[in-house]
Amino acid sequence: MELPFAEPYKIKVVEPLYRSSREEREKWIREAKYNLFNLKSEQVFIDLLTDSGTGAMSQYQWSEIMLGDESYAGSSSFFKLRDVIYELLDMPYFLPTHQGRAAENVLFSALIKENDVVPGNSHFDTTKGHIEYRRARAIDCTIDEACNTAEYHPFKGNIDLQKLEDVFKKYPAEKIPLCIITVTCNTSGGQPVSMENIREVSALCRKYGVMPVFDAARFAENAYFIKTREKGFENKSIREIVKEMFSYVDGATMSSKKDAIVNIGGFIVLRDKSLFEKASMFNIMYEGYLTYGGLAGRDLGALAQGLREGTEYDYLESRVEQVAYLGRKLQEYNVPIQVPTGGHAVFVDAKKFLPHVPKEEYQAQTLAVELYLEGGVRGVEIGTLLADRNPVTRENRYPRLELLRLAIPRRVYTDNHIEYIAAALANIWERREKITKGFRITHEAPIMRHFTVELERVER
Question: Are residues 162 and 289 in the same domain?
Answer without folding.
Answer: yes
